[in-house]
């Protein structure tokens, strides 16, 4: 195998592994948005999310900027909204991620049209 093939296989393996963990990310994100009087529980969820983000960052997996950004069909899946400025993302339903130039998961967003 050539060096380029090895690098491509490693990149694909990282992206596939990260994609398997994204439902966990989504559930933690939803949990963080819920009101709770239990501060220890809230702190535990925050720490878990921080740790997951650190692991993804070490793998070179980064969040795709979305809210307030111009819509980019190469990075975002869109649902249209007639209310705001044209082609500006006004809500993020699901965070997107990428590894270098490779999109691991597209950001699911609401786009003003």
General description of the model:
It is built from 2 helices and 6 strands; from the N terminus they run ααββββββ. With 113 residues, it is an alpha+beta fold. Strand 4 (97-99) and strand 5 form a beta hairpin.
pLDDT averaged over residues: 89
Q: What percentage of the residues does DSSP assign to strands (E)? A: 15-25%
Helix proportion range: 40-55%
**What is the rounded distance between the termini?**
47 Å
> What is the tally of helical segments?
2
Short description:
By secondary structure, the chain is α+β, with helices and mostly antiparallel strands.
Output the keywords.
113 residues; alpha+beta; 3-stranded antiparallel β-sheet; flat
Present the secondary structure layout.
Layout lengths: L2 H31 L5 H20 L2 E3 L12 E6 L7 E6 L2 E3 L2 E4 L1 E6 L1
Parallel strand pairs: 2-6
Antiparallel strand pairs: 1-4, 3-6, 4-5
């Amino acid at each position: 195998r050539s060096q380029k093939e090895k690098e491509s296989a490693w990149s694909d393996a990282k992206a596939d592994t990260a994609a398997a963990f994204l439902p966990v990310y989504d559930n933690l994100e939803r949990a963080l948005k819920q009101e709770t009087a239990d501060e220890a529980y809230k702190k535990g969820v925050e720490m878990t999310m921080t740790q997951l983000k650190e692991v993804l960052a070490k793998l070179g997996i980064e969040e795709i900027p979305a809210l307030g950004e111009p819509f980019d069909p190469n990075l975002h899946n869109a649902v249209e909204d007639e209310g705001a400025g044209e082609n500006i993302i006004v809500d993020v339903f699901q965070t997107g991620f990428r590894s270098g130039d490779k999109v691991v998961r597209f950001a699911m967003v609401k786009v003003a049209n």
